[in-house]
Amino acid sequence: MFFSHRSWRAAKGFTLIEGMVMLFLFALITLVFFQTFAYGTALIQQSKYRLGAITLANQKMEIIRSLDYDAIGTVSGIPAGDLVEDESIQVSNALFQVHTFVQYADDSYDGTLGGSPNDLVPNDYKRVRVEVAWGSETEAEKVVLFSTFAPL
């Protein structure tokens, strides 16, 4: 059978080139969609971990606020106290590392140790730092709270 030039152009359908272009565009759009979806899911997961870390840090700080001034300190640190310096806490499927650091602070209002006027009692109050980390414990995966405690 012989087809004329006119009947070949009138045929309906896609050529191989048109089909390949359509397949390429579909694959490109699908790839971009799934990458965006995966990135969004990772951001949601990080937000979930950050919210959990903030909650743990607030709980730890509230526990410290309920202690007597003399009990604020770490078990083997200076100042000595009732707090555990390093602990791992599992919440659902997330593992958080909690680090508590307590140090004495000297207020310059009443003089400083060795300064003028000389402060004979340089332990005016305590500064507490609670750090909660998760994942690879980079700076982006860490929450830090500070507070100051004074004796009554």
What does this structure look like?
The chain is an alpha+beta fold and 152 residues long. The chain is 36% helix and 24% strand. It is built from 2 helices and 4 strands. A 4-stranded antiparallel β-sheet has the order 1-2-3-4, with helices on one face. β3 and β4 form a beta hairpin. The longest helix has 50 residues, at 16-65. The N and C termini lie far apart (107 Å). The model has no long low-confidence stretch (mean pLDDT 88).
Strand order of the largest sheet: 1-2-3-4
Shape: elongated
Count the beta strands.
4
Q: Which value, in Å, is the CA radius of gyration?
A: 32 Å
What is the helical fraction, as a range of percent? Answer: 25-40%
Q: Please provide the ordered H/E string of secondary-structure elements.
A: HHEEEE
**Class derived from helix and strand content:** alpha+beta
In short:
This protein has 152 residues and is an alpha+beta fold. It contains 2 helices and 4 strands.
